[in-house]
């Protein structure tokens, strides 16, 4: 089975939920908003052809608005409740159960598990999650440490360069100082005679 087919199969419940929501919405709009009902609400407006035409335009606009706003609300609810992910997970669980059944594996009936087995399975799941989180933290700390080590190496190189610069400047100053002393002594000798 290709990954595309697998993805389509995994999301069947969510797609069916969206489809059922749209169908229910369309039926609600058809039953709640129709020209016959609006005519009873606006008896003076429907006395002219222009009024009937205006009423039909208003009905189509209201229907379109109600439809799009409702779909946006549905999508907002789906996202808030994370329904797509949860239904995809359910599809995956069902698919795995079907594969297990086809391969001759024994189904796991949770109602037949002892309380100890249920607690142990929960603890194992939590331990795996904790271990995964710790591994992620460890990996991040290794990356951070490597970055800090690189920064320290750069700082060490900068300090070495600064130290060498100070040494060469100091040596230059010492030479210049020595030269100045020699010039002063020569001047003293020349002017003291």
UniProtKB/TrEMBL annotation:
InterPro entries referenced in this protein's UniProt entry, alphabetically: Nnf1, PMF1/Nnf1
One record GO biological process: chromosome segregation
Compartments where found: Chromosome, Centromere, Kinetochore; Nucleus
Keyword Cell cycle belongs to the record: yes
Keywords associated with the record: Cell cycle, Cell division, Centromere, Chromosome, Coiled coil, Kinetochore, Mitosis, Nucleus
Principal subcellular localisation of the protein: nucleus
Gene Ontology CC, one term: nucleus
Segments forming a coiled coil: 131-165
Domain of life: Eukaryota
Pfam families in the cross-refs: Nnf1 (PF03980)
Residue intervals passing through the bilayer: none
PANTHER family registered for this protein in UniProt: POLYAMINE-MODULATED FACTOR 1
Name of the protein in question: Kinetochore-associated protein
Origin species: Candida maltosa (strain Xu316)
Biological classification of the source: Eukaryota, Fungi, Dikarya, Ascomycota, Saccharomycotina
């Amino acid at each position: 089975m290709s990954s595309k087919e697998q993805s389509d199969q995994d999301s069947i419940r969510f797609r069916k939920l969206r489809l059922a929501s749209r169908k229910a919405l369309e039926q609600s709009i058809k039953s709640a908003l129709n020209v016959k009902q609006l005519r009873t609400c606006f008896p003076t407006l429907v006395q002219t052809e222009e009024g009937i035409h205006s009423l039909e335009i208003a009905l189509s606009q209201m229907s379109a608005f109600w439809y799009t706003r409702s779909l946006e609300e549905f999508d907002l609810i789906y996202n808030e409740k994370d329904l797509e992910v949860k239904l995809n997970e359910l599809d995956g669980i069902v698919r795995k159960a079907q594969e297990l059944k086809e391969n001759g594996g024994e189904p796991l009936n949770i109602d037949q598990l002892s309380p100890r087995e249920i607690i142990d399975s929960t603890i194992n799941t939590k331990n795996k999650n904790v271990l995964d989180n710790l591994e992620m933290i460890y990996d991040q700390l290794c990356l951070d440490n490597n970055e800090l080590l690189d920064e320290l190496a750069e700082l060490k190189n900068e300090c070495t360069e600064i130290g060498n610069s100070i040494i060469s400047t100091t040596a230059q100053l010492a030479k210049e100082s020595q030269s100045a002393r020699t010039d002063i002594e020569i001047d003293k000798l020349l002017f003291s005679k």
